[in-house]
Design a protein that fits this description.
It contains 14 helices and 11 strands. It is α/β, with parallel strands linked by helices. The strands form 2 sheets. It has an 8-stranded parallel β-barrel with strand order 3-4-6-7-8-9-10-11, surrounded by 6 helices. A two-stranded antiparallel ribbon has the order 1-2. Strand 10, helix 11 and strand 11 form a beta-alpha-beta unit. The structure holds flavin mononucleotide.
């Protein structure tokens, strides 16, 4: 396989034909309109990704409820905002009908902003803990959001169970809740597995993926043996993901870390290829656990000019199906198209951290290294 094949050869992903093996990972731009609605800035951002020719585009984290927002201008999918999401799908598909256009659904959990309502599923701290009835209600909201996503015309949903948000917090071995959402791996995966099952029944052929942090680098976090452990031990994640795959998940999008606590695990920094290689290993590990399942790998922006070669190598070795790029899709939304026809014109992500700082400061996110692009475009 060579670079031209990576970009130009269609591939089968979870039974669907995609134009190439490059995915634009979800990247929050914190630019929604009133009530979390789709704004002009959001339409423009996804139109530019559509023009880029990505095989898969995942819409940034969209909250299943206006009651839990991580960003002050985060997107919300509910009956009030549905029409805008229909427009978003239509405008994207008018430019790039061949891509899979997937929406990421989230509940911010303990990572909701102070302007919203931080709540926890487990852990010993001051954040109020959700009751069983509240988790039941959040589970139902995931199902409703999946149905709305199908109604809006998306090809599928990606349930956010990574980076410390509610779905990922529940998966943690430290989650010792005594109800149906804690304790065993199956219980810890219950909310996410239920969201997957609801999505699968929303529409014939509708896809359901899940994004996870395989190892969070936290005591008792995902990818450890138990509440007291910090060293990587993945058997608990294998069991939890088994329940999620058993519920019908079409793919897993494998990430790592909690950006608020272990940022370099999620977003490896310049000069530390070691963290990037961990991402390669995590994706390959999930492929080995579930050989027939489609897997997207993360953090490829870190590879810079070598990223395409890394992707080819990993795909050829069967260690991943699709290479996911986050920061690179902000730096240059046209990356796949340029890789195919004008590689010398690519604006490579400089890993400067500018976009992350904007997000952290609750500002509209854009690439600060190539500011001529304007807000998030
Ligand atoms: C500004 C910003 C926004 C992000 N938004 C999301 C998001 O909405 N959902 C998600 O799962 N990850 C999100 N991430 C994480 C990225 O998708 C990705 O995992 C991370 O940047 C590492 O990959 P990269 O090296 O390709 O950038 C975000 C990261 C940044 C820097």
């Amino acid at each position: 396989m060579n670079i031209i094949n990576l970009v130009r050869s269609p591939a089968v992903f979870a039974g669907r034909l995609i134009p190439n093996r490059l995915a634009a990972q979800a990247m929050e731009i914190n630019s929604a309109g009133r009530g979390g609605s789709v704004s002009q800035a959001v339409l423009a951002r996804y139109a530019s990704l559509a023009s880029g020719g990505w095989g898969i585009v995942v819409v940034e984290a969209v909250s299943i409820t206006a009651g839990s927002l991580a960003r002050v201008n985060g997107l919300v999918l509910d009956a009030n905002t549905l029409e805008g999401f229909r427009r978003l799908v239509d405008s994207f598909k008018a430019i790039h009908p061949d891509a899979l256009f997937i929406i990421q659904l989230t509940h911010a959990g303990r990572l909701a902003g102070k302007f919203s309502r931080p709540v926890s599923a487990c852990g010993d701290d001051a954040v109020p803990r959700l009751s069983t009835a509240e988790l039941d209600a959040i589970r139902a909201l995931h199902g409703e959001a999946a149905r709305l996503s199908a109604d809006a015309g998306f090809d599928g949903v990606e349930i956010k169970a990574c980076h410390g948000y509610l779905g990922g917090e529940l998966l943690r071995p430290m989650n010792d809740r005594a109800d149906a959402y804690g304790g065993s791996a199956e219980n810890r995966a219950r909310l996410v597995a239920s969201a997957v099952a609801d999505a699968k029944s929303a529409r014939a052929g509708f896809m359901a993926g899940v994004r996870v942090s395989l190892y969070e680098g936290l005591r008792g976090g995902c990818g450890t043996a138990g509440a007291g452990d910090v060293i990587e031990e993945l058997s608990g994640m294998r069991a939890a993901l088994g329940a999620i795959v058993g519920a019908g998940a079409d793919y897993l999008n494998v990430s790592a870390g909690v950006p608020a606590l272990t940022p370099h695990l999620t977003r490896p920094v310049k000069g530390n290829a070691f963290d990037l290689y961990h991402h390669f290993r995590y994706a390959r590990t999930v492929k080995e656990w579930f050989p027939g399942l489609a897997v997207i790998g993360s953090a490829y922006s870190t590879g810079g000019e070598s990223a395409a070669a890394y992707a080819e190598e990993n795909i050829a070795a069967g260690g991943v199906d699709v290479a996911g790029f986050g920061r690179q899709n902000l730096a240059d939304p046209l990356f796949p198209r340029k890789l195919a026809s004008a590689p010398g014109d690519i604006d490579y992500c400089t890993l400067c951290g500018g976009c992350s700082k904007l997000l952290k400061n609750q500002e509209a996110v854009r690439c600060t290294a190539y500011p001529r692009r304007g807000p998030a475009a």
